[in-house]
Every structure is written in structure tokens, then in C-alpha cells.
Amino acid sequence: MDKLIITAAICGAEVTKEQNPNVPYTVEEIVREAKSAVDAGAAIVHLHVREDDGTPTQSHVRFQECTEAILKECPNVILIPSTGGAVGMTPDERLDSTNTTPVPEMATLDCGTCNFGDDIFDNTMPTMRAFGKRMVEKGIKPEYECFEMGHLETIVHMARKGQVPSAFGVAGPDGKPLPLVPMQFNFVLGVLGCASATVDNLVWMSKNIPAGSTWTATGIGRNAFTLAAPAIVMGGNVRVGFEDNLYLERGVLAKSNGELVDKVVRMAKLLGRQVATSDEAREILSLKPRN
Ligand code: KMH
Ligand code: ZN
Description:
By secondary structure, the chain is an alpha/beta fold.
């Protein structure tokens, strides 16, 4: 079994300091949280950014500033900027996070429209095709975020058609063969209005990805660690962080993203699975080595 890749989703777009005062908004706070997660054992940071007052933004200027500041402290970490942004943002606005220099190694690609609590997270097929095209053009490896079973089936269908990066060896919309990119999925389970964070759902999703793909489990809220446990023993990877869950345990707010990552590291140790460094994660995810 490969080593366990831990992703820290340190900020998100929806959670606030009112819910947990340690949620980062400023560049300094975002760096503090990224460093706490990496020091605890995260190989990847999934990045959203905010204005200083906490307003979510997809501005490449803010992403550039945060990325450079994080890489100064954590030079080897894999950064996965969000292209999901916050509900209500336009597709163009959301894609701006990929306009940093250098181009990000990976970025999220959300795989379908869904309820998101009381809101709608809008990801039409044309939007997904446009995001896939952009990622092919820029050589960005997508992390396919699936909140529902149908999201997974849809994105695999689009991959077979050459509309998004994949390892199927098919031609893209211009008829030229697409580069081979093994698919990385993130099963985000437990969002209110979407598929629940059950072991059955995780098993179904992990069994229905193309051969050679990798996958990560993200359990929302109180499901953060109950979904991490099966993912660790099934050979998947785990995402935790303030974006998904603010508590270390029932009634105890986490002081940092590092505390949440450390809990997964301890679970992995108890269950006999080693944790991957960022370089080992690059190898597992078929990314180019950093140097
Ligand atoms: N903020 C959510 C509406 C992503 O990063 O790609 C969507 C999200 C997904 O966080
Ligand atoms: Zn996100």
C-alpha cells in the first residue's frame, strides 16, 4: 500500500472566525495555518484565500501573495488552489486562482452542480469542460472533487471523451492526443444536501474510479475522522482542515489545522500506515519532481 497523503484544507470559503477564532483570513494567518499543517505531517495544502476582513476571493493577486508567503515557510509543499471558490462566484472569477506564476501543480475541479446547505454550488457541464480545457492548456493536474455518486460518473464520462485531463489516452477537442494524467479524486462526503459520509458510499466511490487513479476522502463536520479511518485502511488518502471541520473532538474547537493533521497522523500510526512527505506524494500522484 502506498504511504498516506494528508491534505490540509486550511481555510475554505465559508467558515468564519465567529465559528472558530483560529480560521485564517490575513496572509500571515494563512501562512501560520499552512505551516502548522505541514509541520504536523500534511504533504498538500488545499488553498482558499480571503481578504483581510474574511471575504472569500479568487483573485490571482491574493493567491500569488499567499502562495509566495507559504512557499517561503514550506518550500516543498504541494499547493492545490481552489477553483470552486465560494458559492455564487462566476466560473471566470473562480478560475482566476490558476493565473499565478509559476502555474500551480494541481487545482481542484468540481464535478457537478449540487445543493450546498441552503445554497446551490453551480458546476454545469459547460463550466466543467471549460475548467478541464484550461487545465489541459496550462498543464495543471486536476483534483476531481465529487460530492455525489453522479459527479464521479459524470467526470469519468467526460474524461473518456477527452474533455478533461485523464489517463485514457484519448484526443482532446482539437483532435490532438491529450497528455496522460492519472486521475486524482477527492470524495467530499457529508455536505448537507449531498451524499452522506458513510463507509458504503466511500467503498462505492473508490471502486468506481478508473484503474491507476488515486483518491482522497474528506468527511465534513463530525464525519472528518470517522471517514478518515476507513480511508487509511482502504489505501486511500485523507483531507482534514478548517474548511471541512472546526473541531478536534466533540465540543473541542481545534487550535490549528496542525492539530487536525496531527490527529490523522496518530490514527495512521495506530493503524500501521506510514505518512508520505510532499516529495513522496508527488511520486504517488505522478507529478513532476520539484527539482
Ligand atoms: N467552497 C465550496 C462551495 C473547491 O475548493 O474546489 C466549494 C469548494 C470546492 O471549496
Ligand atoms: Zn475548497
